[in-house]
Amino acid sequence: MKRRARGGNGAAERDTLRPEYDFSRASRGATVARYAEGANIVVVDPAVLDVFPDGASVNEALRALAPVIRRGRRGVRRRRSA
User: Fold this and answer.
1) Rounded Cα gap, residues 42 and 63, in angstroms
2) How many helices (H) and strands (E) does the chain have?
3) Are 38 and 32 in contact (CB under 8 A)?
4) Per-residue tens of pLDDT for the chain, all 82 residues
5) What is the DSSP string of 42-81?
6) For the chain, what is the largest distance between any 2 Cα atoms, rounded to a whole number of angstroms?
7) Angstrom distance (rounded) from CA 61 to CA 66
8) Backbone phi and psi for residue 26, each to the nearest 5 degrees, phi listed first
9) How far apart are CA 51 and CA 60, in angstroms?
10) How many CA atoms lie less than 13 Å away from 38 in the CB half-sphere?
């Protein structure tokens, strides 16, 4: 016997898929290989979306910042693991 979630009114379990959407001929995992080859997905915080409205602006900022970060890493010595 399955347990029911507490406090739920069942509205979340209701089928909300529109009738015009037809997934009867869909194939599962059709794009997974393409993403595995090198898709990097990053979630941008909503607080900075006014500064970075698209991927191009994020990449531009990161390219400008990358040399500074790389210089900072050179000065840091790594500990030897015991």
Assistant:
1) 16
2) 2, 0
3) no
4) 556 656 555 566 777 888 888 888 889 988 888 877 877 777 889 999 999 988 889 999 999 999 999 998 876 666 666 5
5) -PPPGGGTTT--SHHHHHHHHHHHHHHHHHHHHTPPPPPP
6) 62
7) 9
8) -75, 155
9) 12
10) 0
pLDDT score, position 3: 63
The Cβ-side half-sphere exposure at 18, using a 13 Å CA radius, reads 2
Q: Please give the Cα distance from 53 to 44 (Å, whole number).
A: 9
Q: Which residues contact 52 (CB under 8 A, 6 or more apart)?
A: 44, 58, 61
The pair of structure tokens assigned to 29 is 């995992």
pLDDT of residue 64: 96
